[in-house]
Amino acid sequence: MKHTRQRWPGLVLAAALLGAAPGAMLPALAVPLQAADNLAPRQRILFNDGWRFQLGDPDGNSAPYLYDIRPEVKVSADGKEADAMPEEAVRVARANTPLLRPWILPTGNAFIKDPAKRHVRPAQPPAVDAPYAKLDFNDSAWRAVQLPHDWAIEGPFLATGPYGGMGRLKTWGPAWYRKKLTLPAGDKAALEPYAGQQMTTGPQAKAYADHYINAHLQGVADGQTYSEVSGAYIAQCSDPKAAATEACTTLAAQKATLFQGETLRGLLLYGYAFATMGTIAGIAAISAFVAAGLMLLLVGIGFWHARRAKNDVATGTQPVGAPA
Predict the structure, then answer these.
(1) pLDDT (tens digit, 9 = 90+) per residue, 161-215?
(2) DSSP code of 126?
(3) Are 105 and 21 found together in one domain?
(4) Is residue 286 part of a domain?
(5) Which residues form the domain of 14?
(6) pLDDT for 229-268, tens place per residue?
(7) Which neighbouring-strand residues pair with 54?
(8) Count: domains in the chain
(9) Same-domain pairing of 175 and 224
(10) Which end of the chain is less crowded, N or C, counting CB atoms within 10 A of the terminal residue's CB?
């Protein structure tokens, strides 16, 4: 079955393709994050705004974008049993059929507790030439939409067929969503070297803390810190009646977000500090080992020289040039 019943398969595909591509900043986006020096240092932009939408795959061909092998469904009805033939996919599996499943499954590893059950992403990107997922694709002709978006409700209604349970609306099929984000040049330069990597080092923690978390914190309350927003909340919202107002509700939400964000940023910077200390300690340890080895060599030379001098005295020999 070529089509999926998920509403946003194009977004998932973009995540799979760009997540495997080197230099991809945010794998769920189908266009690159671009430096924008001419913008304000920080902006607060709603993520749900500014999307482009296209129903259907390029040229109407869904074969290159299959997530998994599924049995072909010739007749679909609302009342049929779900997964009536769960093993049928194995029976109809075709050889040499490119599938995106191996690249998409690893994106959920963060939610799998048992490391043994996590998925390994193939070393190479999927062999799919997807025009809609290319960084330089021009999506200006696509519809501008705001998320959440439901294309099925727009119709048209299905006049025939057993689809009454879904309001006679076509809810299945592939669709693509794209969004362009801008990122200040400094943040982009700091984050790009670590794109697609798991955070395991101090420099990665610092980059994420200063150029990702801090970038978002600056947009929460127009650059105010947690202490400033908390002070404003205490001053304006101590009265229970005032606390119920929209202004105090907004301050409370900003206060909670800033507290969590600044705490996480602080922990990451602590990690960076200890990683730096560990690096310095490692260098010092190596230097100490080298110095110890040098001292051991000098001690060995000293013992050798003392033994030779003792032998010279015992045989009555004198060093060349010594007075008689």
Answers:
(1) 776 667 788 887 888 999 987 777 888 889 989 887 888 999 999 999 999 898 8
(2) P
(3) yes
(4) yes
(5) 9-184
(6) 999 999 999 888 888 899 899 999 999 999 999 999 999 9
(7) 176
(8) 2
(9) no
(10) C
**Domain-located, residue 314:** no
d(CA 40, CA 94): 53
As a three-state string, the secondary structure of 228-289 is HHHHHHHHHHCCHHHHCCHHHHHHHHHHHHHHHHHHHHHHHHHHHHHHHHHHHHHHHHHHHH
Residues 174 and 227 in one domain: no
Neighbouring C-beta atoms of residue 40, cutoff 10 Å: 7
Q: Predicted confidence band at 315 (pLDDT cuts at 50, 70, 90)? A: low
Short-list 15, 128, 140, CA closest to 62: 128
324 falls within a domain: no
| Spatial separation of the C-alpha atoms in residues 34 and 29, rounded to whole Å | 12
CA-angle at 53, arms to 50 and 56, nearest 5°: 165
Rg (CA), the chain: 32
- Sorted by sequence, the CB contacts under 8 Å of residue 85 that are 6+ apart come out as 71
Q: Is residue 65 in some structural domain? A: yes
